Queue: 3 jobs
Job 1
Amino acid sequence: MAQLTVRSLLTALAVLALAGPAQASGDGFIAPPVLDVFGGPPGDQARFFAGQPGVIMAKAPEARLFMAWRLLHGQTVGATAGAGLSMPCCDPAVDRDYQALVAWQAARKLVPGAPSNDPWVRMDRPLGSGESRPNCFGSALEGASVTLKARIARWGAADPAVRTWLAGQDAVFEACAGNRVPLPSLAGAPDWLLKDGAYQAAAQQLYLGDNLGAAQGFAAISRDAASPWRRPGLYLTARALLRDALARRTPVAEASARKVLETLAASPPGSWAYREAAAPMLRTLDYYLKPDLRRGQLKTALEGPTLRADAAADFRDYLGLSFKRADRSEVFDWIAALESGPSEPRRWDIPDDRAWRAPALAKAAVRWSVGQDPAWLIAALSLAEPADRQTAALLIAAHKIAPDSPAYLTVVWQMTRLEMASVPAAKLRARLDGVLKRTDLSATDRNLFLGERLQVAADVADFARLAPRQRLCIAETVDACPRYAWLMGEGVETGVDPQTLTWATQQLIDRTPLADRMALGEAPGLPAPLRLDITLTNWARAVQLQDNAAIDRLSMRLVTRLPALAADWRRIAATPPGPDKRFAEFLVLAKTPGLRSDLTSAYVRPEGTVRQFQGFWPDWLIATKPLPPATKGPSWWGFEGVDQTCEDRCGAGAFPLAAPAFIQAGAARMARERGYFAYLRGEETDERITNGKPYAATPPGAVSAWEEVLGWARAHPDDPRSPEALYWLIRVSRKGASHDGSGQRAFRLLHSRYPGSDWTRRSPYYYD
């Protein structure tokens, strides 16, 4: 039976009042999940609800900023109200509706010979112009599944009356999409089916928009003491009249709905089902038909010392009624100040538009100076940049905020951002180390401060200690981190490492000369997977530089760090410099599709067996002399001026990535080394750019690794590695960038020279 529940109404109101666009996290690349504007894991959420706001991220959802405002002013939030305010709109309902649909389809199949129907019940009613509105909800499907199973258990799946019931229910669900399908005749039907049929008829009228007809039908059911649907009858009557009042918006329709709702609300407990739904339905009536009255009630509720359990609905209703009003609560002015600026993150190739930021900063700074409210200091700091005329005064005020203030962590983070280029690194390290010693930091807070601390790392060892970040979503169930899953539009990752390197950290590592990079790979404290990533990309750099000492040292490290290629690593280290050694090195490049010399350049960690390695091959070029300097190397594309520390979520003020002093000291060496790193154009690979144009052919002074592999195999037919090398060149041409048809040439040589080889049998095609 299409049973209508309290949740049906609340979900409907959520869809009407709460729907909004999903947020995205950055421009071009999706960073590992180390920050969460929704609050992170349950423990971090609990501390927030108890009064510890942590670092307030300006681009957090409005409901979270509302809670932060309360905490900054000594008001409570509480776990119940906080949980509702922290939940992104509608996501759990969508999943529940889908599960209800699956259950309904399974229940229908229990009836032999049940008429086939569209497997997807269309739950939205078209409004024209491609728009629609929610009309039915998962609770109706759930109720229908339960009722159908009950009728089967009582009367049998083959009973004709059960099949008639199912036909009636299918007609009801057709009405969800506005389709009027005649209900089956009930002439001669048993009494139980007549009762259910009356309910189905009223439900169909409701979904078709005949609200008064539905109200009359449900009212009659409420008066029928023999009907199994009598107890929810008064609620359903009220729901139909509420729909009618919202549709017609006349005094008569409003009075009819209000009378029944007040009767339901005043009824003794247990007398009617869903009696508790009357209060939110009355609030809904006031929201649409008496908005000024409802707005005043909501303002009082939201500004009070405590929040009601369903404060999320209050907040969103108030926001809807007050968004453009000049007399709205101050908290909404504060939220608007934090949200100032373009909706999209800053890009390296788009100049800063000060037209929107300067006025917002000026207003926030004035609000701070007038009332000395730390919330407005936070807003002003989040908008400020070091060169702004207000910044000096704001920093003086920031230094006076006490460590026990709920504003302290946000102020320190913003203050450090603004002083990154002007305050000695040692002083910043001392400040940030003090913060990182705190035991009350959330995972997001700690990752944010580690991001700042990394930019003033003293040396390689200090950098290695600070580099790993806690990944926020590594649980096996979506309940452990539902907010991040909603934010990114994807499920929670499973089987991933608990620590990761952010894009900012990877960029800094990629700007580090090989010698320092190798020291970083040996520094204590790095998790094994991250150590492998750094060591393997170091090895690729050493190969491109043809630094044989580094190649040998790194190869021996990789014997244990990537044992799937242990034999290759040992052979490389044991072979003296020359063509044989280069062939052994280039064979590893051919076996490792995701290998790169930059972490930020499509690198994919090799996992499992060699045949399980993932990724795409570039056309590896080995330079005999430095190539002309590029206008932009792959590690820098799209990141100039982008806030990689907070991913543009902490405010409109700029926070460009800064390299620690020891990395800056190696900039000249890094520039010389990068002259040896080159890629050709290829699918899923980076393009080396010179003077704004990609290389169309092998640059002067460079040779193709694939060409050398093919040449070695041609010249050494008895080398047992030759057929395998040809096999891999064919693989390269399938999922990567081969060189001048090297895959096709390898295929022909392999099949003509080694017809009985297993490598030949595994290579029936070429792909150039």
Job 2
Amino acid sequence: MPVVSGTTGLHETLAVLTSQLHPDARHREDLSFLKDVLSEKSLAYLMKIHEKLKQYEKLSPSPVLDSASCLAEDLADDLQNGPLDEDERELLLLLSAPHLKAVLSAHDTVAQKNFDPVLPTLPDDLIEDFEEESVKIVRLVKNKEPLGATIRRDEATGAVIVARIMRGGAADRSGLVHVGDELREVNGKVITHRRPMKLSQSQGSITLKIVPAVAEEDRLRESRVYLRALFEYTPYDDKATPCQEAGLPFKRGDILQVVSQEDATWWQAKKVGDSNLRAALIPSAQFQERSVLLSLIILCIVCLQAFFPLSLSTASLRRSFRLKKDRQALPGDGHAPEADQTDFLIYEEVTQYLPRPDEKPRLIVLIGSLGARISELKQKVIAENPRRYGLAVPHTTRARRSQEREGVEYHFISKNGEYKDNLYGTSLESIHRVLAHNKVCLVDVQPEALKTLRTAEFQPYVIFVRPRIFDSQRKLFGSSSSLAAGITEDDLMDMQQSAEHMDECYGHWVDYVLLKEDSVSALIELQVVMERVQKEPQWVPVCWLRS
């Protein structure tokens, strides 16, 4: 058996011990488990860190003196008082240099300062005897960050209770504060009449007097639920949030990792890509839906009372909205595009997806506002690389124009679906035909068709093409050709309004917004985006991969 001496490192001792574990027939399962535990890399790393810390304690560097600046000045004075040889003159010149003086001054500043953390002693009167209550004193040293906990007042007893612990915050990292704990004092001050919101504003060192909850365990378990936000949220504008400082602001399209759904009203989440490791509060889907519904009811009551000053039944209005929502949720229920505006757009559960080489390419769907000219854009994509890209040609019942070719711009057929006095549509068969040749299929559709295409069968990547318009609204980028075509300021205003309307009604389905300045740059940007879609991970609805 290898010899373990007193100088052998802890991690080396652990490795020797692990190598000597030979499971026998009677204790095979227990010894195998022990060997797996001792073989963990994380445990070996911890042992190495422990050794380094111990080594630092024994051999911690200490300055020889803390007054090097004074010593250098005294030496310079002595040198100036007598005759100097060549070496002494060089030394005097060095000691008089401002850079060396600055270095010695910095050395003295560091040498005279104690960098070890020093916790203040607890006040003598902080510990009190309670007849039958166990009280614990918790001291947290924070780096200019919130405590990471929200509190509430018990309506029956008036006690201030820890309502939730934010994942990754100071309270969570300490492991000493738990949901359900009763707070008696903060930094020696009784908080019976203290507003709960003030606790989140405490900075630096904080001392808590706590009556522990019956259950000391923190039941929160970090989940791996990812949601795409379909609305914008600003906690400082939300009076319903239990703590505005603990809220997580986000924009539509942000990806949120929900780490706790224990609270049915306020979930804890982190924003994917954010460097902040602490979780924060977001409204739950159910709570946000109720808030939106209540806002609609109030708005409806105000509008109706403005026109019809009659007594209205709030219950009947709520039932009307619920029935309308249920009707819209029915699969296959045809409705106008405007109906989508009343849907409850809260969150969409998503996951990361990377297409495999053996899978068919993702469908590229182009939607465009007025003036985007996406038909011209997709034709240029096909013309440059017909082997890589294919076009699902739409159908129309309008008359064929002189420059149009059957099966290129449109398939000219009899009536099927109406758009602006003419009937248009893209058949699913034409999409399948392109994908069957392992080509990236491009389609441009009216945005209301996204409800049909946005399925696991096609896994579409939706690109919204909109013309970039100057804020002055006087001309388009690359406007020489546009103005020559007779585009007026009213036309530009219509384009702006069209883009805003499409973004408001269908922006939650959009994966990428292409601001078109001119045809050349738009074509290059579109090609880059389409290649990235087929090669890089993308967030997609989780139902696409479960079906």
Job 3
Amino acid sequence: MKPIKHFLVLMLLLVTSVTSAQVTFEAKVSKKKLGINERLRVDFEMNKDGDNFNPPDFANFMVVGGPNQSVSNSWINGKRSYSKTYSYFLAPKRQGTFTITQATIEIEGEVYKTTPIQITVTAAVDKPKDGNNADYIASENIHLVAEVSKTNPYLNEAITVVYKLYVSPNTGVSNWREIDNPKYSDFWSQNIDIKGLKVQNGTYRGEDYRYVVLRKTVLYPQKTGKLEIEPLSLDITVDVPTNRRDIFGARLMNQVHKTVSAGNRTINVKPLPEKGKPADFTGAVGDFYFKVTTSKYELNASESLQAKVEVSGKGNLKLFELPKLNLPSSLEVYEPEHSENVRTNLDGMQGSISDSYTVVPQYKGKYPIPSISFSYFDLKTESYKTVNSNEIVVDVLEGPTSNVGEDITSANGNKQRVVLSNNQFAFVKTNTDFVSTKPKHFFKSMAFWSAMVLPFLAIPLVIVFKKQQEKRQADVFGNRIRKADKLAKKYLGEAKRELGIKESFYIALEKALHNYLKAKLHIETSDFTKERISDLLISKGVDSETVSHFNALLESCELARYTPINHVEMQKDYDLAAKTITIIDKEVK
């Protein structure tokens, strides 16, 4: 029995050692069912360190935090316990059942994968009204509101949507980004530029709040009936006060992520009345002035003039067609050149639009440009108005006459008699001013003396330039710095051109930072560690805050592919890079 007993003990120890050496890599979630207004935490845990970690694409979710990395390494009773975790915080984009796909990592030359996990997203859930709960406090003190100027406009009447973010006095916002933008599919839209966010005081539901205007948009409805304005949604980092205080008695703040939405808004668009609608109405709505002008009233045959049809005022200037000129058939007319001088503000479009026709008469005579009409819907009186232009007569003074006695055709097709004269060829010039084409001699001319003297005057300049060039070429160290500086500026310029394209932008930004340091600190790429950079910059007299900003930029470049980053955050990183390089230039000794 003893040999069998010893054999069983040996097998048990062998199985235990093999099990303890087994590699584990798994995904864990905080919950498998959540409301669309809740957050989900996903942890990817492994018991051995690995390389080339690739997270899932998190389709149907938005990454609002992470990746956060944590490592646990301990010894208990002589046995080592190791754990490494990558954590992500996700916000669902829509309701439904979704799958968090596999993550992969390479450990000891083998590729390991996690098991896919199904997540069910339900409608928004009610959260407990706990005055100590940071999420509840944030939801009660942060509000995104879409203020619509008019909810029952006419077709093609301008309305404005102003998005305001209201924040209570005891709550702070440290960062925000847009996660869902309205498309305005049934509207002509124009965003109004906002130069800097200005904090203002106001009231929301009768209580004092601070607010900022995030976006202003002008809309012209293009369909009648009930139209939906899609919501604007933001992911906000909120600083919420807690009941805890520091050693000085100041209240500590807790930071939470909050998704807020302005909600859908319904616009009931009224059709324009059919009663009294003019036959020439092309959709103009607003308050307009109309005129037809010509650049000349008298000219000779084969000369040209400009006939301009112009509408100015306030309304949907870009959304209707101008009336066409009706000209006599004996005038040669080219396709009109359209011009717009329109600005858009919260009151809608204002300015002018015009069509400019180039007109060339072929024969002598008087040519009438008859009156044309322009109709629009006046919002003040809620009725149609028609404006007529003045009739213009163009007098062609000199030129050939038509071979036919009655040749000039009016705009409506009637013939007008042309009075023939005996001097119909008077426009042909019989006296000319000829200029001699005999070549002039180069010898003793101004060009001759200039060619003789200029080389002698240029000799001192050439000597000075050559000395400066030799001095610059001898400065090997300076040339290397200048070359690296130019390269850094080049990559910083490339980063600016790539703003909005996350991967390309951060690659160019990282190259710019690296090449700048190579020029300033005279170190090779192999020396680029954060500790080495910090030590060298501080030893050169650079402030520690500036050093931390530089390291933060390098971290942003490294983590960019794991984090959803919008144009605003990329612009902030670019501005910080330019500012940091300028400060280091000033502080490096």
